[in-house]
Predict the 3D structure of the following.
Amino acid sequence: MARIVVVGDAGLDVVARHDGPLVHGGDTRSAVRMVVGGAGANTAAWLAHCGAEAVLIGRIGGDIAGHRVGAELDAAGVTTALVVDESAPTCCVVVLVDEAGQRTMLPDRGANARLSPADIAPSALLGADHLHLSGYVLLDEGSRPAGVAALAAARAAGLTTSVDPQAATLITRLGATRFLELVAGVDLLLPNADELAVLTGSTDPESARELLAVVGAVAVTSGDGGAHWVAADATVNADAPVVDCVDSTGAGDAFNAGLLAAWRGGSEIAAALAAGVAAGARAVQVVGAQPPSPLNVRG
């Protein structure tokens, strides 16, 4: 069983699945749920669900939301190394989900934006095989030093590393060149097609070859187009199954978890990629970004 450390956000998602277009300045009826989310927490929960040993490093507020986040992650089987910040609230994200299951997010990173290098406890890396970093940590100026420190600590400890770029619009704001400088040397970059386009100018998975001068390999997700592992020696593809998309929130985080759990657990690349696609497909069929937990059953 692989032991994978995740560095990233944890918080609460307020998921509003609305009927029809939003009425600006008016009312739109919705089905609203409050669930645990945050890209780092999502990946960690799905890692545990996929059979890996998951550790989450992050920051929460000293509030009720933070207590709930910790309790649900514990129930999901995630080992947490969450620093409690008494000066900032726990992250909260308003997620608007349309009739096709596609999400629009309004995030307040809260305490996550204050993650610091001191929060990357060396003890959390002991016995680990791999470190996965959420790109949101690097894309926010406040938490960026923590992301840089996490990658450096992982390399010093002999761990393999991966980064999910997370947000095309935020990469554009930072600049693709600067982002690639920050992730230089990681073993695996995990962009979706939109993020790949910001980094290479194209959504074609083969354009990821341009990034191999910076990272070891690239796993690109393309929604209904499946996923593609691009490395110096070959490209491996995995088709996406046809499923009913209820809520696309966290699909990429689940894909990351399925792939990493299998890959670092010893599977061949083709099998690991397929495992990632399967986890992503399961994620879009439930409301919320994490698998059902004993404390919070979702439908």
Residues 69 and 217 are 32 Å apart (CA to CA). The chain has a mean pLDDT of 93. The longest strand covers residues 53-61. The chain is about 30% helix and 25% strand.
